[in-house]
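Subject: Interface between my chains keeps coming out wrong

I've been trying for a while to get a sensible model of this assembly. When I model each chain on its own everything looks fine, but I need the whole thing in one frame so I can look at the contacts. Pasting all components below, labels as-is. Any help appreciated, I'm running out of ideas.
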Amino acid sequence: MSLEQVAIGSTARVADVSGSDSTSLRLLEMGLTPGVNVRVVGTAPLGGPMELELRGYRLSIRRHEAARVAIAK
Amino acid sequence: MTPTPDGTASPDGSSSPAGRAGRPIVVALLGNPNTGKSTLFSALAGIPTRIGNYPGVTVEEKLGRFSHRGQSIELIDLPGTYSLVPKSPDEQVAVDVLHGRLAGVPMPDCVVVVADATNLERNLYLATQALSLGLPTVVALTLSDVADDKGITIDSAELGRRLACPVVRVVAPTRAGIDALGDAVLSVMQSPRQPPQGLDAHLSAVDPRHEPAAREAIARYAWIEQLLSGVVHRQPPASRPLGERIDDVLTHRLWGTLVFAATMLAMFSSIFWLATPLMDGISSGMDWVSGLAESLLPEGAIRSLVVNGVLAGVGGVVVFVPQIAMLFLFVAILEGCGYLSRAAFLMDRLLCSVGLGGKSFIPLLSSFACAIPGIMAARTIENPRDRLLTILVAPLMSCSARLPVYLLLCGAFVPNVAVGVSWLRLPALVLAGMYAVGVATAALVALLLSRTIFRGPPQPFVMELPGWRWPRWEVVLERVREAVWSFLQNAGTLIVAVSIVVWALSSYPHNDAVIDADVAAHRELLTARLAGLKADDPDQTDVAEELAALDTDDGLAAARRGAAQRHSALGWMGRLVEPLVKPLGWDWRLGCAAIASFPAREVVLGTLAVIYNLGDIDPGEEEGGTALVRRLRAATWDGTNRKVFTLPVALSIMVFFALCAQCASTLVVIGRETSSWLWPLVTFTYMTVLAWLGAFATYQIGTWLGG
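Reply #2:
Try treating it as a single job with all components included. I did that and got this:
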């Protein structure tokens, strides 16, 4: 299961970030590292980006980027 | 601490604690975006001594100078960055400066890492990377007052011990901790320390299947969690913080979109309407100065140069200032309180569908008022590809300068009939259609460019939504001042130069004998035409009136002015391009007007008035507009009774002006913002080609349907 599928308002724990390009590295650098807890705050209209809360701040990423973030069961 | 904005080193620099005789210490300010770095820069160094672009890139370079305890310090504000593994030109510049690899920029002696105290965990990512560079480093904890309010306490002394570098709490707007920060810089310069070790221990714990860079990132966060354990204490607030509750509404799918639409409407209408009285004021002021120059200078070439060349050019530059100031005031306030990121968040999906990103929205929206502030606002787009694409399509948004052209032609040549319902009139529909033509073309161009020459790996949209806070007025005003100044300084002179060139083209060569002959020939032509017209012909009054005007002083002067322009280099150029504009349904006079309106498209109506012997009237005013419309309606092709202005021609002119790049100021600003002459050239070429094709299709289809 990926972060893209997490319901609004729920919290999930990151298991892994797939891919080895600069986008994946940026996701890790922004703190989406394995083990961190992420809350999905909301999403923009028409399938727009997701708003996340992690490490005490808020981050927005596009859905296809969220799809790279695997969630721990 | 005394800022020395004049850039001179303090006289007692030789007795500085760092012992660097006379030479200033170079300090680089490094930090994540939205950490209050600009406010800290102002608190330390006051007004920057230099603002410009780094050589070869469009990344802003900001330098300042101040002295602390007698030591002169040069401050370099590095572009905001999340990591020292660069992913954008901005971040590349920050890294290059830190390594002393950028020509013309001194290698820093010391790094001040700006870290947001409310978001320390992520901010320490960059701070620990900076420490491993081995340069003397100080960490400045900004927004400490906001952290206090949120119930976050940080043991900065303990954090300093663990990081092996001074950690100083600052509240930049009140200057609290600024002196302590200066002291810390001098102290690390005197006694360099070993960078902290600890990353390696965490590296071995990371899954070895990851790439080295990814392993480092994972290990670094594990290390930071360890560094911060027992250092940061969070007092859970009694109720949910106001900022979070505001955010719930403003990024909500429905409510957030509604608030966004209302905010944008308010912003857009105030740029459009609030700036208008100011612009009118500037125009009246320039008219007064022109009048003064006219009364002081003797009639002749010098007066014409001053009034129609120089002053017209200066007026054309200054008139943009209210819109630029207004837009940047809004953008700086929205950016300062954190709304700009929310706006990009909400609009991202829509703009993604045409190959742009959420941050392109505000630049494109403001381009409906004027492309110049819009293009300048594209500075808020970090991603260089999205920024360039936005700049290239922004001039296609129908700006306020196109409106008078649309209004005059729609009013004069589009039949005022109802379409379906009684309140929906055809002229209004055509007017809306012109705006739609611009938007649709921009969408297509953006889509096409993003799939072809701007094709590349998808750019990440990983954007922080910074915490809500009140904008700092000094930062807001600095943004406005900087935007206005850079426009006046860099674009102003060139725009005035272009205006002078066009004045020269329309004034020379000047031959009185040729002009006299032209006026005489025109009188004969009108007499012959009047004789051939029946008394009930609608043109009869117009032609009789024009003929009668030739016997008045003003009418003769206007006719001579028109003849002078028709026989100038501009007139010659108009005849030269006639084969090119004929397929659009235009005669050579319209060709002239299109060439003369290169500096600014609003000039086209004034030029038409001069060419059609009306002299210097104001077609924007009702009386002038009516006179011009009547003259245009009566205009015929040279030597025939065939009308020049028909509905298909009026539509073709409007489509041409909707899509063309007839605005020297826009092109100059594109050149400045992209630090290259290639992009204004590309913009001009592609827009002119599209404008021609659009006008051609409109005229041909219109004629075919009408015939």
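Reply #3:
Confirming on my end. The first strand of chain B starts at residue 2 and ends at 3.
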